[in-house]
Design brief:
heterodimer; A: 203 residues; mainly alpha; Arc Repressor Mutant, subunit A; 10 helices; 76% helix; 0% strand; disordered N terminus; B: 199 residues; 3 domains; 2 strands; elongated
Chain lengths: 203, 199
């Protein structure tokens, strides 16, 4: 299943702010089902973004858990006249950037470990193996990027945010984000070309 | 602009991130540069591979796991805050109030003890100086009539704060007699001051 990145962000714009506001008001007063509903509404977006930023399911789950706990803690401060999802996306980026620094030294381990999780023997083994190889190559290229470049690239090309939205989330100037995205794409191209040239047995 | 300078723009161009003017410049350059055309093709390919990551979405078990962990933690936090409100919060409140009370009582005790040190009836030791009128120079010893008793002028030498003492009343001035004794040595003159009783 492919999530349409632009649709994901746009969904936050069309998010029913009034309904969300009521849910938040109930959650603040200790209504646990209301908070559970908030989690249900946004868990896929948060976990998907964390997975793309961190690369491993375990790290992504930890990050998503942290995001929702922070949301629960600071829900009173949230301006209910605004949609909730951009707030959660911003929080996810911040949590992932923090946890990304801690696990930088383990980056090669997770790429090799994560690669085996997507093999589905029910499909054509050749196609499946080739897809896995491509995924591995992209992951390796992605983790070689600087943290800010990786975050900007994921938000722009996978999450489908505009450069202005990425700049707002990262707290950077739009020109800076544009430059980071450009540099990141060039690095990805180089890393993928190098990896494919030397190691891809399927090509 | 050189091809190297166009690289950054081409990386934005392949995803449609350039405005009209920049886009036309890049297209004009690509029209006549095979190397940059090759770079643009490679960028499109790597971008397609990268965007294939959109298919990586978490499975339902991962979502359920996160939700369960979050709700469990929230329940713990709520229990913790309830405990804090009922016990720890109350204890802190009581401890704060007790601390304030101790400070108030201690301050009051110190203030009272300080107040006891301060003399309430502020009495200064009267130092009375009796001015004796200078005797008339005489060459012989002769009883001098008692000079008119000048009114005693008590002078307060110091007004420093002192411990309370008994009030000392000034003695009644007595008529005094001054006796001047001349000796053989002109440098030695002896004055005798006494009252009528001879004290």
């Amino acid at each position: 299943m492919e999530l349409s990145a632009s649709q994901l962000w746009m969904s936050s714009a069309s998010e029913d702010v009034e309904a969300t506001s009521k849910l938040i008001a109930r959650a603040i007063t200790g209504d646990r089902p209301a908070f559970e509903e908030i989690v249900l509404l946004h868990e896929r977006r948060v976990l998907t973004l964390a997975l793309r930023l961190l690369g491993t399911s375990e790290d992504a789950q930890d990050a998503a858990q942290e995001v929702f706990l922070r949301a629960f803690k600071y829900l009173r401060r949230f301006d209910t006249s605004k949609p909730l999802e951009p707030w959660l996306v911003r929080m996810t980026v911040n949590v992932c950037r923090g946890s990304g620094r801690k696990r930088t030294r383990n980056r090669l381990m997770f790429v090799q470990r994560e690669g085996a999780q997507y093999v589905d023997p029910g499909n054509n083994p050749y196609v499946q193996l080739r897809a896995e190889e491509q995924k591995r190559v992209v992951h390796e290229a992605l983790v070689c990027l600087a943290e800010k470049e990786r975050t900007a690239l994921v938000l722009r090309d996978l999450e489908g945010l505009s450069t202005a939205e990425v700049a707002e989330i990262l707290g950077s100037a739009e020109a800076t984000v544009r430059s980071q995205i450009s540099v990141a794409r060039l690095k990805m191209r180089k890393a993928i070309a190098r990896t494919k040239g030397g190691r891809d047995v399927l090509s | 602009m050189s091809c190297h300078e166009f690289e950054g723009l081409i990386a934005l161009y392949v995803e449609g991130d350039l405005d009209g003017t920049e886009q036309r410049r890049v297209e004009s350059h690509l029209h006549g540069c095979l190397d940059c055309q090759s770079l643009a093709d490679e960028l499109r390919e790597s971008q397609a591979a990268f965007k294939s990551m959109r298919q990586d979405v978490p499975d339902q078990s991962a979502l359920s796991s996160v939700r369960a962990r979050v709700l469990a933690d929230v329940a713990d936090m709520e229990c913790g805050s309830l405990f804090e409100r009922l016990f720890w919060g109350g204890f802190r409140q009581r401890a704060t109030l007790a601390g304030i009370a101790v400070l108030l009582v201690g301050g009051a005790v110190l203030w009272l003890s300080y107040r006891q040190d301060v003399p309430t009836d502020f009495v200064v030791d009267p130092v009375v100086v009796f001015r004796v009128p200078a005797p008339e120079p005489e060459s012989v010893v002769a009883p001098t009539p008692p000079p008119p008793a000048p009114p005693a002028k008590p002078e307060v030498r110091s007004a420093r704060r002192q411990r309370p003492r008994q009030v000392v009343s000034a003695p009644e001035p007595q008529p005094q007699v001054t006796i001047k004794l001349l000796t053989d040595d002109p440098n030695v003159i002896i004055y005798w001051l006494g009252d009528e009783k001879g004290d």
